[in-house]
Amino acid sequence: MQERKKVAFYTLGCKLNFSETSTIARDFTKEGFDRVDFSEEADIYVINTCSVTENADKRFKSIVKQAQKLNPDAFVAAVGCYAQLQPEELAAVDGVDLVLGATEKFKITSYINDLSKNDMGEIHSCEIEDADFYVGSYSIGDRTRAFLKVQDGCDYKCTYCTIPLARGISRSDTLQNVLDNAAEISSKGIKEIVLTGVNIGDYGKGEFGNKKHEHTFFELVEKLDDVEGIHRIRISSIEPNLLKDETIQFVANSKSFVPHFHIPLQSGSDELLKKMKRRYLKQTYTSRVEAIKKHMPDACIGVDVIVGFPGETDELFLETYNYLANLDISYLHVFTYSERPNTEAVDFDGVVPVNIRKKRSKMLRGLSSKMRSVFYEKQLNTERTVLFEDENKEGYINGFTENYVKVKAPWNPELVNTLQKVKLTEVDEDGLVRFEFVG
Ligand code: SF4
Are residue 135 and residue 254 in the same domain, yes or no? Predict the structure, then answer.
């Protein structure tokens, strides 16, 4: 009897990539493959790449090396954003056998009838304009929460960003499909769903393959809140100009949506926001934070910010620093600007030296950890619900409250993937929150 083949996956980048890897992995299982961990020997290794990750090329090469060490005869395939943007570069990496672009990645199982190694990586790529159709996906089994893809691509033209070049135009899943996927996920015992996409606030555009908006993000949120059996729904990230008051008020009174918003800001200088071609200025951003805190004073607000963008003088950086320091927000994700091929910003004047970029990044990360502990302190003595994760971390179990406070307790397998009512008691030396069970 022929032995079942083994497949392993390595995912770089965002929640969207993780949801797509999980969907592709389910296709392999349907084709009779056994999924193994990437640290194990496999017959085929699939690497889902990212174009935003710094040093994406170095990371990719080291992951291919890792696979080759485990099984030098294994077939290595690359998919994802980097594979769409730089297929030749990836195909030339020693050990790579197949590179699939945005239109082919979900058809990978039709490219692997013959797993014998190729001298040079075989490329099946496309013009990004061809990637105008939508493929649904969600992650399950990899973590305590499921990443549910609702939208793909982006029609914005931010001057530092390659994502529209890697993922194509903005398009959405049908509302019914999203609701079906959500119900399917909750029927598998998953307690939390994280909505993901590239520009999810633009949900509804291209739902039926045209440019029209059939539904809005607000309608999606409303309908999802009615799906039976879902305990918690988290909005992964949403553009400030697309986060409407009605959505904020609905989340504040909803059954399942949690009071946690992640809103990209990128800069606290209107001058730089214009150069970035962002679709809002500071005033709009401030109004979003104020609207959230008005309806949900304990909501958690995470902020993406880029440091070192061309033209960011010391004064403009300090403007960003002070703006952030005076906002009622909870933590920052700090990205150091790095030049990306085929973006407008690559040709901009006022290039910031790399050592200055690093210094500014360090300053904002310092500010972020201060913000997080202030936010955590404010939550002490409040009662929350924690969803416990499934990993024994050096004898401890972690979990997150609905407003994204990370807690820890001595490892107890009975807590895994359960929702528990707790009272937050103290922030311990490693910045995590201790609690006592209530009720
Ligand atoms: S909104 Fe801007 S930064 Fe975000 S994916 Fe679209 S182009 Fe890129």
Answer: yes
Task: Indicate if 342 and 372 belong to the same structural domain.
Answer: yes
CATH number assigned to the domain comprising residue 273: 3.30.750.200
Is the per-residue pLDDT at 24 higher than 80?
yes
Do the Cβ atoms of 401 and 385 come closer than 8 Å? yes
Q: In what order do the strands lie in the sheet with 145-149?
A: 145-149, 192-196, 232-235
**Full-model pTM:** 0.94
Report the alpha-carbon distance of residue 182 to residue 152 in Å, rounded: 17
Closest approach atom of ligand 1 to CA 154: 6
247 and 301 both lie in a single domain: no
Please give the number of the atom of ligand 1 that sits closest to the Cα of 162.
Answer: 8
Non-local CB neighbours of 91 within 8 Å, separated by 6+ positions: 99, 120, 121, 122, 123
Ligand 1, atom 1, lies closest to the CA of 156
Give the tens place of pLDDT for each residue, 268-293.
Answer: 999 999 999 999 999 999 999 999 99
CA distance linking residue 88 with residue 215, whole number of Å: 39
Q: Residue 89: which H helix or E strand, with range?
A: helix 87-91
Boundary residue ending a domain (92, 109, 126): 126
Decide which of 207, 226, 258 is a domain's last residue.
258
**pLDDT in the model for residue 143:** 61
pLDDT at 333: 97
- For residue 248, the CA-to-ligand 1 centroid distance in Å is 22
| Structural domain includes residue 1 | no
Quick check: 404 and 330 in contact, CB under 8 A? yes
pLDDT of the residue at 113: 85
Answer whether 105's CB lies under 8 Å from 78's CB. no
Q: What is the DSSP letter of 297?
A: T
- Across 14-28, 107-121, 269-283, least confident range: 107-121
179 token code pair: 């609701």
Q: What is the Å distance from ligand 1's center to 74 Cα?
A: 36
pLDDT digits (tens, 9 = 90+) for 126-168: 899 999 999 999 998 656 799 999 999 999 999 999 999 999 9
- Ligand 1 contacts (CB < 6 A) are 154, 156, 158, 161, 163-164, 198-199, 239
Domain range spanning residue 252? 131-258
**Among positive and negative, which fits the CA dihedral 164, 264, 254, 144?**
positive
158 CA distance to ligand 1 middle (Å) = 6
Kindly state whether residues 121 and 19 are assigned to the same domain.
yes
CA 62 to chain centre: 22
Question: 211: pLDDT confidence band, cut at 50, 70 and 90?
Answer: confident
